[in-house]
Amino acid sequence: MDLKKIITNMFFPQECIFCKTEIPITTECPICEKCKNIFVFSSKQIFQRYPLEAIVSCVKYEQAARAAVIKFKYGQRKDVGRFFAEVMTQKLKQHNVSPTIVTFIPTRKNERKRFNQSEFLAKKIARSLKIPCKPLLIKKRATKSQTSCKTVIQRKRNVRGAFCPRKDNLSLQNEKILIADDVFTTGATMTECAKALISAGATCIYGISFALTATGETHKEIRFEFSQKPEIITYENLPYDAARLLKKHIRAKRQKGRYNPIDRFFRSEKNN
Ligand SMILES: [Zn+2]
Questions:
Q1: 163-165 and 137-139 as β-strands: parallel, antiparallel, unpaired?
Q2: Does pLDDT of 166 surpass 70?
Q3: CA–CA dist 202, 177 (Å, integer)
Q4: Angstrom distance (rounded) from CA 38 to CA 50
Q5: Helix, strand, coil percent values for the chain (each to nearest 5)
């Protein structure tokens, strides 16, 4: 902590964002030690969601986390953001996720004045991990806020094809890219960003979020071994193009009224 900040804190003491108790001048975190315990740690801290290799999450998106996220995102409390980034970095280390580049979810040109929480977190995490933070993506079109979309399908539609890679980033093949964001809900945005990075040649993409919503918790948890391929074949863990082709194939067959063993297999997997 720099001298300027210490002096400022002496005249304007820092308060905990939750209980308003005074925080010692030497600590940078805006949440007191007692209140740090009110965050409920997410039961699914690491899980898989194609095409992302792994998604790491820190806490459940419950009362405390929601209040903190609102303060960070809409109140632009950067001190809260720094606390998030610190927790996120620790979680990455704990799960042995070691990216080589950190990137963020981009905003549109005209949205740029707005605070980009994803970019803020990405930069802080990159600094702690001593790796570069690079803008690898461009947002091609405007989207509605994901929070205004009620269903998973609406969320997916809202961001489908909204991102593309930057042309100047062509050598992503040997990089392990980490996408950072504050909240993971259905993962629609992060998945779209990952697809755009894959189209630019990236092969290994991770995601990290500070909070995970109840919707996000339904994703299948993984025992974390990178080499291990998922054992059950479902649409979710098939390569994107293969899943799309297979669905198309099944639809065509169904229209012709033909029996399809693959279809039956997938349906039985879905029911399990
Ligand atoms: Zn407190």
A1: antiparallel
A2: yes
A3: 8
A4: 32
A5: 40, 15, 40
pLDDT value at position 109?
75
Is it true that the peptide bond before 51 is cis, omega within 30 degrees of 0?
yes
CATH of the domain at 122: 3.40.50.2020
Gap from CA of 31 to ligand 1 centroid (Å): 5
| Tally of domains in the chain | 3
Same domain? For 60 and 94 the reply is yes
pTM of the model: 0.76
Helix (H) or strand (E) holding 93: helix 78-94
pLDDT for the residue 8: 67
Same domain, yes or no: 180 and 203: yes
Same domain, 80 and 201: yes
216 CA from centroid of ligand 1 (Å): 27
Q: How far is the CA of 14 from the centre of ligand 1 (A)?
A: 11
Q: Is the CB of residue 162 less than 8 Å from the CB of residue 141?
A: yes
Q: What mean pLDDT is predicted for residues 243-268?
A: 56
Residue 13 Cα to ligand 1 midpoint, Å, equals 14
Distance 23 CA to ligand 1 centre (A): 8
Q: Which residues surround ligand 1, an ion (CB under 5 A)?
A: 16, 18-19, 32, 35
pLDDT at 253 over 80: no
